[in-house]
Amino acid sequence: MLKFVSTGDAGPSASTSTDSVDTHPASASTSTDPEQPASANTVQTSSESRKTVTDPGEVQAASVSTSTTRGVQSAADTSSSDPNRTVAAPPNDPADWPPVLTDFMRTELVRRGPFKPGLDFSFPKDKSRRAFHSGLLQRKLSNGEKIHRSWLTYSIKNNAVYCFCCKLFSTKYNKIIKEGVNDWSNINAILKHHESSPEHTQNMIKWRELDLRLSQGQTLDQIQMTIYEAERKRWRDVLTRLISITQSLAERNLAFRGSSEKLFQPDNGNFLKEVELLAKFDPIMENHLSKIKDGQTHAHYLGQHTQNELIQIVSGKILEAIVTQIRDSKYFSIILDCTPDISHQEQMSIILRSVALRGKPEIKEHFLGFVNVEATTGLNLSTVILNKLNELKISFEDCRGQAFDNGANMKGKNQGLQARLLRRNPSAVFVPCGAHTLNLVIADAAKSSKDAVGFFGHVQKLFTFFSAGTQRWSVLKKHVKITMKSWSDTR
Ligand SMILES: [Zn+2]
């Protein structure tokens, strides 16, 4: 899943890239990113994340997750497969409706229409053997004509009738709204009285209007929801692209910003350049840029703070995945080294090595990032590394190895980093760096022989002479088939 990208072997090159982005005067001073508050990202974190970005799929999935929206559209579907919907949707029986209806519930109820029991339902009779009957659903006008009482709804729970539209829209007290009417002896008079009240007429109109708008898909809610949905999708699409650009630059360890923060400027850096490139072929990005150009949107998510935030999010997700993997593996070893960056800030690069157990067991080395260090003493380094592990919630008790160079601060028998760590965890066996050891052995061996010192001295003199000019170097290359190297200054 996650692959280790770079182990920070090239200290200088890593720091160069860090500098080219973050200490650039323009990028550090000008802020044209209106949608973001100033972020406290440091040089460290951005270079760190740039180094560790590896898995595009995972990051995308994780960082663009958005909650689903509740609205009229979901209300349209009354299936109870979605647990949220069942909670939000009001019950059918009017006796069970909550005392205060939300807009969502009202919309949902209008969609369903008044509740009527099934045809085979037998209405319970009262003491005088009277009951609700389907004849009540018809209103007889004075001219003998019959019209349907569409507003009348029946509650099985209370064995009572309610006025559907008044229950939906009225805020006043009325028995036919609150408790329901089951005075079957006087029911005809009660219904007649209610349906001729002005209040009821108004609520009927409200109901009919909402019903009509719903059937035409024109409720305010629905229009708003459609706009909102389109907007949400647009931003998601834009952000997905910006995240992809962030990943693509980070994977190659490229600087994000140039000296200009404006689009379509020649020196605006790789991030904006890739945005422009994408906009040439991708309609979504093209649309986004044209909105920015026309001033239709002030939030463009292209500024330096957004870039830093994207880097942070991506790196955070990757670090999370690495830490999970290391915890799964349980045992790990630490590899670290320090080197100053171009601004003379000493930086420690930390790598954890473990055996990944998912699938085929495989040795993995994970670069966790650069950490600024004040002093390179064994004491300070051990504090820094232990703090870092603590911060990542990786237990140092599970450390089974440490590998550093042969510097006195690292391998020192009593005060060195390895000795300090070993005292805390005797299982964390120290293995000095093989390449560095070999280098030291060869250098010491050469220094022990007068002949060898003389030989390498001559070689160095030749190197100094020929490398002083390109013309000299080409003469050397013309006559000698091998190339020359300077003395290694590895200590
Ligand atoms: Zn009514």
From TrEMBL:
Residues 136-219 form the TTF-type domain. SUPFAM superfamilies: Ribonuclease H-like. Residues 1-99 are annotated as: Disordered. It holds the Pfam family DUF4371. Residues 13-47, 62-84 have a biased composition (Polar residues). This is TTF-type domain-containing protein. The lineage of its organism: Eukaryota, Metazoa, Chordata, Craniata, Vertebrata.
